[in-house]
Amino acid sequence: MVAIDSKDSLYVENLLPENDIFYKKLENFAKENRVPILDKIGRAYLIQLLNIKNARNVLEIGTAIAYSTISFCENVGCKVVTIERDIKMYEQAQKNIQERNLQDKIVAIYGDALELDSRVVNNAPYDVVFIDGAKSQSRKFFELYEPYFADNVLVITDNVLFKGMVADPSIIKHSRDLKQLSRKINNYNEWLMANPNYTSVILPFGDGIAITTRKVKK
Ligand SMILES: C[S@@+](CC[C@H](N)C(=O)[O-])C[C@H]1O[C@@H](n2cnc3c(N)ncnc32)[C@H](O)[C@@H]1O
Predict the structure, then answer these.
(1) How many angstroms does the Cα of residue 38 sit away from the middle of ligand 1?
(2) What is the 3-state secondary structure of 80-114?
(3) Is the separation of the CB atoms in 149 and 155 below 8 Å?
(4) Ligand 1 test: best mutation among 84, 117, 181, most atoms within 8 Å of CB?
(5) Does position 113 have pLDDT exceeding 50, yes or no?
(6) Does the predicted TM-score (pTM) go above 0.70?
């Protein structure tokens, strides 16, 4: 894995413009409550990607506190349909969405994303799908929501390298659960990269991000 040196990451992070106080508050909340959210470079990268794509309608699996949701909405101008199964996270997300007055741009769904919700169907098709839920379930999410992808869809899957544990499972000591998780993520990566209908690239920065587009006949 060509890991980006942490000094480089720090350097790049320091060059990013300061986030406003609202986002800093969410970052602090996430840190204090151990909520995994996009890191600053990942956030900036996805905002840039969504803007290049001119994203209009995004589906997100895994809202947490709506840090990525609100970031996309406010910095790209897209609508976001987002799903969260943890009630505490969902309630915190709702609070944050209300604080930014984004109720008409964000459809926040409380429920398990492994079950299809009518609001997801009614708001389809999606030109961007951000898969950021349980890491062992990425393929299930992909296959469940595939019928609701726009023709020109961009699918982003986060954490596909899982802190180096996918490329090198020998670094996992004494945890069968983590070993199993790293195997499942590897299975997803292999399936995604070999999928005849899509073209994907895995970027080895942050925790690993897979970027997928539909294959077009040339
Ligand atoms: C990495 S966090 C999401 C972070 C958020 N996208 C961000 O960057 O600000 C993953 C979230 O997905 C939720 N989650 C995991 N599996 C899920 C499922 N099957 N359905 C709905 N939510 C799920 C977890 O409860 C957790 O809050």
Answers:
(1) 11
(2) EEEEECCHHHHHHHHHHHHHCCCCCCEEEEECCCC
(3) yes
(4) 84
(5) yes
(6) yes
